[in-house]
């Protein structure tokens, strides 16, 4: 495995605030890597440190094995796509995409060929002469992408690139970004606070909390085996059995996470509990049911609306639920 990015004991303080508080991380060449965490957890600062827009307080950053901690941004083999796209409003799409090449002194004819190739990659041929104001949000996003890939960086840094798009377009662009990454074969590092986006797109995810990485793993590992209560609660629906409930229902101590789709109505499975329905929400293909247990914890289950399931329970009624012990994962 070739390492594209290596961060060692990376720290960044802004006055009293430790925005990045000791991050160690290796990202492989060609990975689609997501940095996930709540607002203020330090993800963007890590991205800006990799890009060179911030200088670390301490620690080191290596790109393709070379220590770039003191290298200015334009000499690092990375490009950034910002959430607000940062396009030049007075320039055409073509000129926006060519910009980086022009700065580097690439000749006009070659600039044009390469810009067109980048526009082809993001499916935007035919829009060369428009200004950014004449484009939709999704098209602007594509221009920003074309501009970032035009000089073929080793690593593309994406800071909440889909944050400004509506949900439907967001889903479309998620698919396209992934395809683009596979086509280009370069490393993508992607900052998001949207757990679904990270789970569906990334090869691996680092979950951030308070300036530190609390877990790194594949989407499946992060979802099914959260390292602690924070990850269990932040990624997916928080479904925790705290020690009192665990003792009563599981007959063991500790805090356990159970994913909502593993919990079923009725007492057919190994672990059995009874509780009061506190909320029923119709979500289209699923109905979400919250069940309050005697010991105070609330478990959420998702009932598939495929026609085979029983009628949804009524709020305030008592219901039986059950699950298999193999789906309990200890988080504390
Ligand atoms: P978001 O999802 O809201 O962008 P984030 O996880 O990317 O959040 P950062 O933007 O990295 O978080 O911020 C981490 C912490 O550092 C926050 O407390 C933030 O207020 C602080 N911070 C970031 N940039 C600066 C700055 N230039 N000056 C002072 N404090 C800053």
Strand tally is: 18
CATH fold-level assignment of the largest domain = Rossmann fold
Percent in strands: 25-35%
Biggest sheet details: 6 strands, mixed
Unreliable stretches: none
The tally of structural domains comes to 2
Instruction: Report how far the terminal alpha carbons are from each other.
Output: 33 Å
- Helical fraction equals 25-40%
Name of the CATH first level of the largest domain: Alpha Beta
CATH architectural designation of the largest domain: 3-Layer(aba) Sandwich
Order of helices and strands: EEEHEEEHHHEHEHEEHHEHEEEEEEE
What keyword list fits this structure?
9 helices; 6-stranded mixed sheet; 5-stranded antiparallel sheet; Rossmann fold; alpha+beta; 32% strand; OB fold (Dihydrolipoamide Acetyltransferase, E2P); 332 residues; binds adenosine-5'-triphosphate
Question: What does it look like?
Answer:
With 332 residues, the protein is an alpha+beta fold. The protein folds into 2 domains: 3-233, Rossmann fold (3-Layer(aba) Sandwich); 238-330, OB fold (Dihydrolipoamide Acetyltransferase, E2P) (Beta Barrel), CATH 2.40.50.140. The mean pLDDT is 92. The chain has 9 helices and 18 strands. It has a 6-stranded mixed sheet, sandwiched between helices. Strands 13-17-14-15-16 form a 5-stranded antiparallel sheet. A 4-stranded antiparallel sheet has the order 2-1-4-5, with helices on one face. A hairpin with a 2-residue loop joins strand 4 (58-63) and strand 5 (66-67). The chain is globular. The protein is 28% helix and 32% strand. Helix 2 packs across helix 3, helix 2 (93-103) runs parallel beside helix 4 and helix 3 (108-121) packs across helix 4 (137-149). The structure holds adenosine-5'-triphosphate (ATP). Residues 14, 17, 19, 37, 39-45, 193 line the site of adenosine-5'-triphosphate.
């Amino acid at each position: 495995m070739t390492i594209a990015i290596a961060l060692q004991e990376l720290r960044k303080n802004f006055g009293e605030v430790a925005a990045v508080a000791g991050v160690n991380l290796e990202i492989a060449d060609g990975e689609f890597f997501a940095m996930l965490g709540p607002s203020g957890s330090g993800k963007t600062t890590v991205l800006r440190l990799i890009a060179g827009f911030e200088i670390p307080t301490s620690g080191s950053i290596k790109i393709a094995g070379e220590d770039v901690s003191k290298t200015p941004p334009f000499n690092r083999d990375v490009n950034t796509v910002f959430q607000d796209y940062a396009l030049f409003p007075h320039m055409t799409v073509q000129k926006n995409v060519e910009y980086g090449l022009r700065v580097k002194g690439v000749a006009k004819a070659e600039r044009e060929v390469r810009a067109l190739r980048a526009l082809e990659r993001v499916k935007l041929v035919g829009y060369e002469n428009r200004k950014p104001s004449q484009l939709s949000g999704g098209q602007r996003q594509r221009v920003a992408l074309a501009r970032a890939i035009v000089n073929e960086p080793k690593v593309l840094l994406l800071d909440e690139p889909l944050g400004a798009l509506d949900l439907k377009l967001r889903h479309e662009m998620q698919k396209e970004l992934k395809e683009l990454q596979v086509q280009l074969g370069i490393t993508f590092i992607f900052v998001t606070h949207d757990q679904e986006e990270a789970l569906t797109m990334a090869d691996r995810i680092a979950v951030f909390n308070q300036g530190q990485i609390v877990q790194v793993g594949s989407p499946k590992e992060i979802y099914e085996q959260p390292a602690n209560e924070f990850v269990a609660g932040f990624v997916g629906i928080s479904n925790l059995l705290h020690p009192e409930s665990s003792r009563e229902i599981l007959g063991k101590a500790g805090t356990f996470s159970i994913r909502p789709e593993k919990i079923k109505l009725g007492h057919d499975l190994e672990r059995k509990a009874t509780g009061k329905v506190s909320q029923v929400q119709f979500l289209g293909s699923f109905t979400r049911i919250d069940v309050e247990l005697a010991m105070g914890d609330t478990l959420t289950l998702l009932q598939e609306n495929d026609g085979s399931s029983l009628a949804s329970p009524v709020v305030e009624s008592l219901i039986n639920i059950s699950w298999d012990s193999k789906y309990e994962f200890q988080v504390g």
